[in-house]
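Email to the structure team, subject: IstB domain protein ATP-binding protein model.

Hi all, the expression group asked for a predicted structure before they design truncation constructs. Nothing fancy, just the tokens so they can compare against earlier work. One-line instruction: predict IstB domain protein ATP-binding protein, return tokens.
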Amino acid sequence: MNTHETISQMRALKLMGMANAYQTLCELPVDKHPSSQQLLAQIVEAEILDRQHRKTRSAIQQAQFRYQATVEEIIIASERNLSKDMVYKLADTSFVKRHENIIITGATGCGKSFIATALGYQACQMGFRVIYFSLPKLLQRLHLAKADGSYIKELARIEKYHLLILDDWGIQPLDTSARLAILQLIEDRHGKTSTIITAQMPVANWHDYIAEPALADAILDRILSHTHRIDLKGGSLRNTAKNNPK
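Reply from the structure team: attached below.
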């Protein structure tokens, strides 16, 4: 069997990383060819890395992030009330393993969604399943699911994600149906998975925002237990970017 046939069979078996690495090694000058043992080790390692990269790309695509963000791009500054220790502590994603939550609050444009998304990207790279939603859009989705009979199925689908990102908490009023949906969503995930919530509204106002005391107590008891808090300070980073064009 010649080299071309071997590479074709590897690709037919969907061993893309192995096939590409084998082709690259075969194109080296003869005096630089690895030994048989080294060749096998290198193409197996290439296949493992390729599968990891493909898995990460798939996880990021399924997460439905609004944009790309990385932990390295997070602006760490004392005036933002954001320390390097806090960012690095959360970036190792151990909070997901421990089923802990994160709440990020701050003014419009101060980077709440960016930090949440960056941590979501990091979790995808660590092998966790992540899903991103704007809370108003998620509530609308669940409302439609109730109408077509897929509500329980949709809740079960969301429950399977290791990390749920709920962006834009508190930007629109909640009716009874929305309150109950939030409670069921949080209850299903409590103690088993992690949630990141971003909000302009201070946490101290959340009870009044939910409005129904019994439901507010139940929801906040689950959200606020085992939770890391980031309270961002300062003005809009969007304005900073406009005033300091590259």
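The chain has twelve helices and five strands. The mean pLDDT is 91. Ping us if the truncation boundaries need rechecking.
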